[in-house]
Amino acid sequence: AEPIKVAGIYTVPVEQQWVSRIHVAALAAKDRGDITYTFSENTSNTDYPRVMREYAEQGHKLIIGEIFGVEAEAREVAADYPDVAFLMGSSFKEDPALPNLAVFDNYIQDASYLSGIVAGAMSESGNIGMVGGFPIPEVNRLMHAFMAGAREMNPDITFQVSFIGSWFDPPKAKETAFAMIENGADMLYAERFGVSDAAKEKGVLAIGNVIDTQGDYPSTVAASALWHFEPTLDATIAKVRDGSFTAADYGVYSFMKEGGASLAPFGTFEGKIPQKALDLIASRTAAIKDGSYEVEINDAEPASS
Amino acid sequence: MDILEILFSASFWAAAIRIASPLIFATLGELICERAGVLNLGIEGIMVAGAFSGWIAVWAGLPLWGGVGVALLTGMGFGLLHATLSVPFGLSQHVVGIGLTLLATSLTFYTYRVVLPEVSSPPKIDAFQPYEIPFLSDLPLFGPALFSQTPLTYAAFVLAGLCAYTLYRTPLGLAVRAAGENPSAVAAQGLSVTAIRMGAVIVGSGFMAVGGAFLTLSAFDSFFFDMVNGRGWICIALVVFGAWRPGKAVLGAILFAAFDALQIRLQQTGIGAVVPYQLFLMLPYILSILALVVMSRRAEVPAALMVPFNKGER
Amino acid sequence: MASDKMAAAPGNAPVLRLQNITKRFGSVTANDDVSFDLFPGEVIALLGENGAGKTTLMNILFGQYTADGGGVELFGAPLPPGAPRAALDGGVGMVHQHFTLADNLTVWENITLGVEPLLGFGLRAGPAKARIRALAEQFHLKVDPNAKVSRLTVGERQRVEILKALYRDARILILDEPTAVLTPQEADALFATLREAISLGLSVIFISHKLHEVMAISDRVLVLRHGRLVAERLTADTDSDELAALMVGADVVPAKFAANTPGPALLQLRDVTTPTIGAAPGLQRVSLDLAAGQITGLAGVSGNGQAALSDLISGLISPQSGSLVLNGGDIANWTPRKAITAGIGRIPEDRHKTGTIADFDLTENAILETYATRFSHRGWLDWRAARDFAKTVIAGYDVRCPGPDTRIRLLSGGNMQKLILGRVLEQAPQIILANQPVRGLDIGAVTYVHEQLAKACARGAAVLLISEDLDEIMQLSDVIHVISEGRLSPGFARGSKQPEDLGAWMAGHGFDTPQTEDGHAA
Amino acid sequence: MRLEPIAAPSWQRRLMPPALALLATFAIAALLAQIAGGEPLSIFGLILTGAFGSKFALLETLNRATPLIFTGLAIAVAFRAKLWNIGAEAQLYAGAVITVVLGTGALSLPAPLLLPLLGLAAMVAGAALLLGPALLKTRLGVDEVVTTLLFNFIFLLFVSYLLEGPLKDPMGMGWPKSPRLSPEARLPRVVDGLRLHWGFALALISAVAIWVINTRTTLGYEMRAVGQNAEAARFAGIPVTRVILKTALLSGGLAGLAGYSEVAGLKGALTLDLSPGFGYTGIVVAMLALLHPLGVVFAALFVAAIFVGADSMSRAAGVPSYLADIMLASALLLMVLAILLSKFRLRRD
Ligand SMILES: Nc1ncnc2c1ncn2[C@@H]1O[C@H](COP(=O)(O)OP(=O)(O)OP(=O)(O)O)[C@@H](O)[C@H]1O
Ligand SMILES: Nc1ncnc2c1ncn2[C@@H]1O[C@H](COP(=O)(O)OP(=O)(O)OP(=O)(O)O)[C@@H](O)[C@H]1O
Ligand SMILES: [Mg+2]
Ligand SMILES: [Mg+2]
């Protein structure tokens, strides 16, 4: 079939972890010949609606992106282009009155929770450092899930939480991580680039988030919670193709049971993770997949404990 | 940890020196420009360009010091552009600076995207590693803080000394300082104000770029967009804070970095739980302003700063 | 002293030869086919009205401008144009009309600037300072090599400028209005230095508007008018009157000053002390009466509190202690605006920096002090009235300019000064502060300014004339005070003191002894 | 070499350099597009259509110019008095914050009353933010370039705190974002369905107002005098400190209006990325306009057109979108050079 014209609009460069997952999925679909794909990165929210309109005017059939900062305006654009499907990262729910705009988010708390189990099991000091960019829901919920997982292994564990006030300042994230290590952390939650580097340099462990960074830090990153955008995108492409695309919350496609999230292979840490943790991970994975266990979704700002 | 404990830990000071290093390079660069009479607002963009070019050069196979050299040259290139527009043509230094920051930043991002079109995570290089200076690094407190840094940090301090020496103890330094104070004094002694000012801007811009490269070659090991994150603007403040003197400017950079390091650590203390994190992030800026207020009376601003010199006009 | 210097005989080879120099700035021809020779040990005085082209000619010789036509030969070899470096290396030293010193450097640093190769290591401070001290000794140029220039007085700066030239072994010394900012004593010291230099074979080109100086120091006088060399005289064969006439192109009649009968004191200073700011001394318990219909002269070496007195009367500073009494009443919250409304007309010392705004046109400059009171209605400016006022001033005070819309930057100093004078006098001020009102002006302009001050006085205004030119003070003033280190001498009636007596007061003598009422030392 | 003013430049002399500058900018863009694998020759048309090609494009250009006119005026006013206000970014946010604080229900007034009130409040907020650095300058001699620059960082962190704390939208799903303005607090749109709003008209009115102030009022005269020569102004009895403070209030107020116009006109709510550097671009605009208030309007339109056009072109031509910023920067640098060369000639000397 004719490939679908798809455009991506991102407010950050495509290297950013979150967006990179969308970008990679889109590139894969493009390589399969399902879609044609073009994108704009680093688009400020001021320009965002204009870029949406432009892509719509150019005849793109599906526009993916993130409208966390421009919810209302983006919806206005969608209303003006009813023939274009919009799949947008959003903290809000779908609106039945706007059938051509569906929402998604990286609901990978399942995987974060599992990675937390690894962290809790492997931290000897019971002190875990967490470095975040901004305390927004997307970050908060994963941190909470991670913390819940870690507490499963060690209820007395303490967490240091810091926000660096930037999405992209690896040297600063690294400095913050250093400070946490000085302060007793032997396990870091690497929400930002830079944290694993500090862990590697100081010989402590780290847990990856959204992407698998073990390749870069083979003896540092013990586990990673991965987000896979492919299920979300593939479902969308199918629905656009058969004309059944409609307002919906595609967030569920990020759930583990949909294949939208997973714990990365342990790789170099195979065999180093305590059996007790592996057992819990196995049972919880199964429970999550069959729906008998649900990881709590908590969007509140996490605090040090 | 309480504040005192933090302040007396070597690792805290080590962090402060580390955070200060890129600022020292760039502040010295800006200081040289301003001493010669040119406000270089291109600093932020030049740092971005330096961070990228140094890193990409190493990624492409050059040794680390080669990367530093490439960054230096890149900075000098942008410096040449700034100097040409602001010195012989005497265009507004505000416009040229802001324009150059925009140009250097966007050109860097563009080049990055053209060179690395489809990466989801930028490649890493083997960055500078800390080098413990024998004996010195064993000193209590100072050893780990001062003498267990990466070679590029040592270079920053050497450069500071070199700048101070050049400015105050060499004929060239005299000429640069005079050019920023009263260019006609320089011209009347048969020297070319244009050449001196342009030279200062070019060399100063080179140092700024090395400051940027510190971020990718020493503080971190790959390049990200927005990595410089306003550090250039801080350096403009540091020059004023340092009253246009290299020694004071270095102290200012360390002080600023210390507040940054402190703010990171304070977030983990008891107050960190109650005080919004933004307040901690503000701390270095607020204290900079307070320090400026205290220092303001005594600073001697180069009299011809931002004043173009044109032989034909009076 | 000049006649024995006829060694400037044609037989000797000239050290410097200017040939057919022409220089145009846009439509203005600043130098028009100027040629002359300078001989070893000779002093040439270059005379001309403001804007006659003297500075331009010297700038061409020094390589700061490039001539449109003609050439310069130095010691028989052609001098490459537009290269100050070549001129310096060829032995030309220039003391510019405006000082060219970097305030943030020390004296020795300023002097050695650019002498050693720029890319060399280290500065040999020791030998440099030793040499400066030796030169200072030899040429009576007392100055501390380690002093920062920002701390120097005007006279000291002038010495540094000359040392700069001597340090480079200059064979030809160009001095562009070197005495314009000097006290008589300083000027005398400068001449002593010059004579020393001449005796060692240096040649000098000397620019000045002060004819008695020209008569005293030069061997030969060249007169420029509108860029052309219009006359050449041996100093021995001419006199001041002829030179003045040559410059202006017509005879000059100096202003006449009749002795006035004083009226009541309009402004009184009672025991006023003001703070010392930096190197500038404040006033020390100064009492002074400015009486109606009388010119009060203030003599003194610059930097002895004149600035403080002038700032005080202008409204820029308030007394620290003591009081200011205006028409019999004390004044509080003293500001420039208050001073203006109180009828004080102020002619500032520095017309470029304080008197005018260079990029404002004449209209805007004319209303600078009165825009708020005379030309505004509820915050709106009445430009038509302002322009008319500017035209009145231009016409009434002989301001030579293309029109009220010209930027004042383009006017010569004399015309700028006339505009300031006009804007002040048009307010019919009862008290006039005239701080160095004729500094740097040519004879024609000087006469004009003096006449205007005399007229104001005649209609009953109280005038305070501050000047470092003792001749001017003695010529104009009904009463003379001397200021030294912030202290004020008693008033001396016209003709009651000789220049030497005043000079002694200026040097600080007489202040410590108790005074009798009439101002004579007991 | 030196620059010599041309007494009466001919119209060719005036127009040639800017035209060449524009051409050179396009040439640079074409070259870069070629390097990135784009089609160099097509970009000219794409930029033009991107900026002006449709009603939508044109209005988008006007839209983007709106905040730039405000910040450009803010900078022009301040720079003319030699008050180096680099903090328009923060002042813009101050205006936006107060608009949101008062416009989300705190004041329930009908639109014709509420809108002017909000605008006034935004001006006060922006002005208040510049007053601090201005006082530090006049009272203590602290360099305002640095203080206003640092204030940008401080105030943005403060906004970030507000958006995560007291000003956070309870319905915002935890995202740092303010509640939406009530409908009465929204500036109406000029054309239904498109984003252009009456903030643009307000910007034009402001430009004319500043022009009138500059040329016709005592304040304008005072501001110019202080900027050109503060010492002479003080001597002449102009209350220099008061004039600087008034200038600061006016400048900050204009920047505050930019925030008001963006929130009340365009966004309807406040986020931390309300402004992609409008405060800094305002400097570019003001300098391109040679600090002339009416020139600011044209400069803002020029900058907006380049940006919108080139941004759109980069998408259509499939080259990295950073090309737009490159074009903007080159256009700025080449244009100021061209403006200079249309008034001066280079002479060997
Ligand atoms: N840089 C310049 N640009 C344009 N015109 C100039 C410049 N310098 C001088 N002129 C012109 O040259 C003429 C001569 O000026 P110059 O400064 O040489 O006069 P001067 O004889 O030194 O006067 P003064 O006695 O006031 O010092 C002036 O009328 C002026 O119009
Ligand atoms: N940049 C310039 N452009 C055009 N003309 C100039 C310029 N600078 C000076 N001039 C001209 O040079 C002449 C002399 O200028 P100058 O500044 O030497 O005046 P002056 O009479 O010496 O004043 P003062 O003695 O107060 O400094 C004036 O007639 C003025 O028109
Ligand atoms: Mg002259
Ligand atoms: Mg003169």
UniProtKB/TrEMBL annotation, chain B:
CDD domains: TM_PBP1_transp_TpRbsC_like. It comes from the Bacteria. It is a multi-pass membrane protein. It is found in: Cell membrane. Keywords: Cell membrane, Membrane, Transmembrane, Transmembrane helix. The keyword Repeat does not apply. InterPro entries: ABC_transp_permease. The chain crosses the membrane at residues 6-26, 38-58, 64-83, 95-112, 151-168, 198-217, 278-296. Pfam families: BPD_transp_2 (PF02653). Its main location: membrane. This is ABC transporter, permease protein. It comes from Phaeobacter piscinae.
Automatic annotation (TrEMBL), chain C:
InterPro entries: AAA+_ATPase (IPR003593), ABC_carbohydrate_import_ATPase (IPR050107), ABC_transporter-like_ATP-bd (IPR003439), ABC_transporter-like_CS (IPR017871), P-loop_NTPase (IPR027417). Residues 16-251, 267-510 form the ABC transporter domain. GO terms for molecular function: ATP binding. This is ABC transporter, ATP-binding protein. It holds the Pfam family ABC_tran. Keywords: ATP-binding, Nucleotide-binding, Repeat, Sugar transport, Transport. Residues 503-522 are annotated as: Disordered.
Automatic annotation (TrEMBL), chain D:
Its main location: membrane. PANTHER family: ABC TRANSPORTER, PERMEASE PROTEIN, GUANOSINE ABC TRANSPORTER PERMEASE PROTEIN NUPP. This is ABC transporter, permease protein. The keyword Transmembrane helix applies. The chain crosses the membrane at residues 62-80, 92-111, 117-136, 145-163, 196-214, 280-310, 322-341. It is a multi-pass membrane protein. It is found in: Cell membrane. Keywords: Cell membrane, Membrane, Transmembrane, Transmembrane helix.
